[in-house]
Amino acid sequence: MVSVAAPRDPRSGCDLLIGGGRLLDLDAAAGVLDGASIAVLDGMIVAVGPRQDVEAVWAPARRIDATDQVIAPGFVDAHVHLGAFLGAGGQPYAAATGPGPFSGAGRPEVVLPMVARMCSMPVPDELVTAVVRPVLMSMLRSGITSVVDAGSPGVDGLVVAAHELGIRAAIGPSLADLWHDEHGVLVQQADPESLLADAARAIDHYDTGDGCVRPVVSGVETMACSDELLTGIAALTAARNIPTHVHTHISDNSVRAHDAAFGRTATQRLTDAGMLTPRCTAMHAGSLTDADIAAFTAAGVTVNHNPVGNAMLGFGITAGGSVPRLLAAGVPVALGSDYAPSAISTPFEMIRATLMLHRDIAALDNAITLEQALAMATGNAGATLGLPGQIGRIAPGQLADLILVDITGPHHLATDHPIPALALHARASDVTTVIVGGYVIVERGQLVGVDEPALAASARQAYRKLAAHP
Ligand SMILES: [Zn+2]
Fold it and tell me: Does residue 165 lie in a domain region?
């Protein structure tokens, strides 16, 4: 008896093949690529091109039909305090400012002690994980595939939650050794050497090298770090070749307070400490002189901008209003949500706030373009995660962090072009599919394999425990 083997498919196997939608392509003059398919293998995009060409080479294990949808790179939230809910534990609602730990209109003498307290809160890891899971769930469902934690308590608990939910994340200790005492005087309150030793141990503990959760070490604020601590953060992150972030140049107020306290500018201190490198993200950094911008440009620093958080907290004229000047100087600007009373602002809100606020400040309706705003939420943010040039575009060699956005809703009626569709029309509820590193995390708007109501219930329970024992 002769056995006949099934004819072998001469094509290479890939994990996913996505086709049928309109691709956002900010590198193309038209901003869109139609009729293209994307092949994904081992977490990377391996091919993008005409459907028949891609299918001639790649035999997928799974196909995703993106008809009537926009396919875009996943969004990055380059600045969020995932544990902000923990810091808000038990805080009552206050008329005028609302609930939450960060009221104070950017006054450093109010904000720095709060942040220092929050980052050093002793919270059991399992409670941190429980409270942060729904935060990450909401972010994923709004199309965020990568997140940078800018300083939270319970780093180990954050790492567990990020692994469980499958979001790409940069997480690590946020350090401060100076903050204001009860009389409003800036004083040294922690030992830099032991902070740095603890930080090195913390990142060793969870840096498993699998690429999903990446370690960072950040400074709470330039003003909250002694020269010794800044120099130590720069040396530690250089030795590990990991990103570092520092809140800095937040508002005109904070810049004045910094310079009065130190007699040197924050840019000078960051430069002297060796902090300003392409691995560094200057968070907020809106209240900038031309000399500051020149120093950032020369050093290859990324600047993070948080339009909703800044405006909601009243930092002032969208916290310095330097974004168009930074973009003109070639500094990559990456959007973040920071802490806002709504706690989570979706990428769509961040993009629109960027457009509205900076166009209004400049009294020009092209002060920021839709393309610039979309790049700020995607490709500009690679360095904030230690992944420069590896995320934010749909091209071979990029990490396969992709979203599909339904554009059939009535609010999309005027256009199906990906740029206005995403920048002006789309809502979080239009996000149908979210892929991180080639894994389908969200499908039909729901997290795959996650009991979302149970997850939210366990978070509420954990939060009640925290609020009862602040
Ligand atoms: Zn922040």
Answer: yes
Could you tell me the distance, in angstroms and rounded to a whole number, from the CA of residue 369 to the centre of ligand 1?
25
Note whether 169 and 133 are within 8 A (CB).
no
Q: Mean pLDDT in runs of 10 for the chain (470 residues)?
A: 60 93 92 94 96 93 96 97 73 66 64 78 89 93 96 90 95 93 90 96 77 91 96 97 95 90 97 98 93 97 92 73 92 89 78 94 93 97 95 96 97 92 96 97 96 92 78
Q: How far, in Å, from the CA of 192 to the mean position of ligand 1?
A: 21
The amino acid occupying position 43 is G
The answer to whether residue 42 sits within a structural domain is yes
Tell how far the Cα of 96 is from the centroid of ligand 1, in angstroms: 21
Work out whether strand 12-19 and strand 58-65 pair parallel, antiparallel, or are unpaired: parallel
Nearest to 321 by CA among 349, 350, 283, 360: 360
Same-domain status, 48 and 111: no
Q: Are residues 46 and 184 both part of a single domain? A: no
Number of domains in the chain: 2
Tell me the CA–centroid distance for residue 106 and ligand 1, in Å: 11
Distance 173 CA to ligand 1 centre (A): 13
The per-residue pLDDT for 120 is: 77
The Å distance, Cα 150 to ligand 1 centre, comes to: 6
Residue 284 makes CB contacts below 8 A (sequence gap 6+) with: 79, 247, 248, 249, 250, 251, 304, 305, 306, 310, 315, 319, 338
- Per-residue CA distances from 179 to 108, 175, 188, 306, 351 (Å): 9, 11, 7, 23, 33
CA 415 – ligand 1 centroid, Å: 35
Is the overall model pTM greater than 0.85, yes or no? yes
Instruction: Give the structural domain span for 55.
Output: 12-74+391-447
- Kindly state whether residues 68 and 99 are assigned to the same domain: no
Ligand 1 centroid to Cα of residue 221, in Å, is: 9
183 alpha carbon – ligand 1 mean position (Å): 24
Distance 423 CA to ligand 1 centre (A): 24
Q: Identify the burial level of 263 via C-beta atoms within 10 angstroms of its C-beta, where 0-12 means exposed, 13-18 middle and 19 or more buried.
A: exposed
Contact at 8 Å (CB) between 243 and 383? Answer: yes
**Beta strand 402-406 with 431-436: parallel, antiparallel or unpaired?**
antiparallel
